Protein backbone atom coordinates (compact mmCIF):
# COMPACT_ATOMS: atom_id res chain seq x y z
CA UNK A 1 0.00 0.00 0.00
CA UNK A 2 2.87 2.41 0.74
CA UNK A 3 4.04 2.00 -2.87
CA UNK A 4 0.65 3.23 -4.09
CA UNK A 5 0.90 6.24 -1.78
CA UNK A 6 4.35 7.16 -3.06
CA UNK A 7 3.25 6.76 -6.69
CA UNK A 8 0.18 8.90 -6.04
CA UNK A 9 2.27 11.61 -4.39
CA UNK A 10 4.82 11.63 -7.22
CA UNK A 11 2.53 13.70 -9.44
CA UNK A 12 2.44 17.48 -8.76
CA UNK A 13 -1.21 17.79 -9.81
CA UNK A 14 -2.24 15.12 -7.31
CA UNK A 15 -0.28 16.92 -4.57
CA UNK A 16 -2.16 20.12 -5.40
CA UNK A 17 -5.47 18.25 -5.21
CA UNK A 18 -4.51 16.98 -1.76
CA UNK A 19 -3.50 20.53 -0.74
CA UNK A 20 -6.96 21.74 -1.70
CA UNK A 21 -8.69 18.89 0.14
CA UNK A 22 -6.47 19.43 3.19
CA UNK A 23 -7.66 23.02 3.28
CA UNK A 24 -11.32 22.12 2.77
CA UNK A 25 -12.68 18.58 2.71
CA UNK A 26 -15.95 17.59 1.09
CA UNK A 27 -15.46 19.08 -2.36
CA UNK A 28 -17.09 17.95 -5.56
CA UNK A 29 -15.13 17.42 -8.77
CA UNK A 30 -16.40 20.76 -10.05
CA UNK A 31 -15.18 22.57 -6.92
CA UNK A 32 -11.77 20.91 -7.07
CA UNK A 33 -11.36 21.81 -10.75
CA UNK A 34 -12.40 25.42 -10.07
CA UNK A 35 -9.95 25.79 -7.19
CA UNK A 36 -7.10 24.28 -9.22
CA UNK A 37 -7.69 26.81 -11.99
CA UNK A 38 -8.16 29.81 -9.70
CA UNK A 39 -5.38 29.10 -7.22
CA UNK A 40 -2.79 27.16 -9.23
CA UNK A 41 -3.48 28.08 -12.84
CA UNK A 42 -4.04 24.43 -13.74
CA UNK A 43 -6.27 24.06 -16.76
CA UNK A 44 -6.65 20.28 -16.64
CA UNK A 45 -9.90 18.82 -17.91
CA UNK A 46 -12.50 17.44 -15.51
CA UNK A 47 -11.74 13.98 -16.88
CA UNK A 48 -8.02 14.37 -16.11
CA UNK A 49 -8.75 15.55 -12.56
CA UNK A 50 -11.21 12.67 -12.15
CA UNK A 51 -8.46 10.24 -13.13
CA UNK A 52 -6.08 11.84 -10.63
CA UNK A 53 -8.74 11.48 -7.94
CA UNK A 54 -9.13 7.80 -8.86
CA UNK A 55 -5.39 7.26 -8.32
CA UNK A 56 -5.56 9.06 -4.98
CA UNK A 57 -8.58 6.99 -3.97
CA UNK A 58 -6.85 3.73 -4.97
CA UNK A 59 -3.90 4.73 -2.77
CA UNK A 60 -6.29 5.37 0.14
CA UNK A 61 -5.54 9.10 0.27
CA UNK A 62 -9.00 10.19 -0.84
CA UNK A 63 -12.37 8.83 0.19
CA UNK A 64 -15.64 9.61 -1.51
CA UNK A 65 -19.24 9.76 -0.42
CA UNK A 66 -22.39 10.28 -2.43
CA UNK A 67 -25.16 12.60 -1.42
CA UNK A 68 -27.95 12.66 -3.94
CA UNK A 69 -26.40 13.28 -7.31
CA UNK A 70 -23.19 14.76 -5.88
CA UNK A 71 -19.98 12.95 -5.05
CA UNK A 72 -17.86 14.53 -2.32
CA UNK A 73 -14.13 13.94 -1.88
CA UNK A 74 -12.27 13.92 1.43
CA UNK A 75 -8.56 13.71 2.24
CA UNK A 76 -7.72 10.63 4.33
CA UNK A 77 -4.44 11.22 6.17
CA UNK A 78 -4.14 7.71 7.61
CA UNK A 79 -1.87 6.31 4.85
CA UNK A 80 0.54 9.19 5.43
CA UNK A 81 0.39 8.67 9.18
CA UNK A 82 1.30 5.00 8.72
CA UNK A 83 4.33 6.00 6.64
CA UNK A 84 5.36 8.59 9.23
CA UNK A 85 4.95 6.01 12.00
CA UNK A 86 7.12 3.59 10.10
CA UNK A 87 10.14 5.89 9.83
CA UNK A 88 9.70 8.78 12.21
CA UNK A 89 8.11 7.48 15.38
CA UNK A 90 9.69 4.07 15.88
CA UNK A 91 13.18 3.15 16.85
CA UNK A 92 15.20 1.95 13.87
CA UNK A 93 15.86 -1.78 13.76
CA UNK A 94 19.15 -2.87 15.23
CA UNK A 95 21.81 -3.89 12.75
CA UNK A 96 23.74 -7.10 13.37
UniProtKB/TrEMBL annotation:
It comes from the Bacteria. InterPro entries: ArsR-like_HTH (IPR011991), HTH_ArsR_DNA-bd_dom (IPR001845), HTH_MetalResp_TranReg (IPR051081), WH-like_DNA-bd_sf (IPR036388), WH_DNA-bd_sf (IPR036390). CDD domains: HTH_ARSR. Keywords: DNA-binding, Transcription, Transcription regulation. Residues 1-95 form the HTH arsR-type domain. The keyword Zinc does not apply. PANTHER family: TRANSCRIPTIONAL REGULATOR, ARSR FAMILY, TRANSCRIPTIONAL REPRESSOR SDPR. This is ArsR/SmtB family transcription factor.
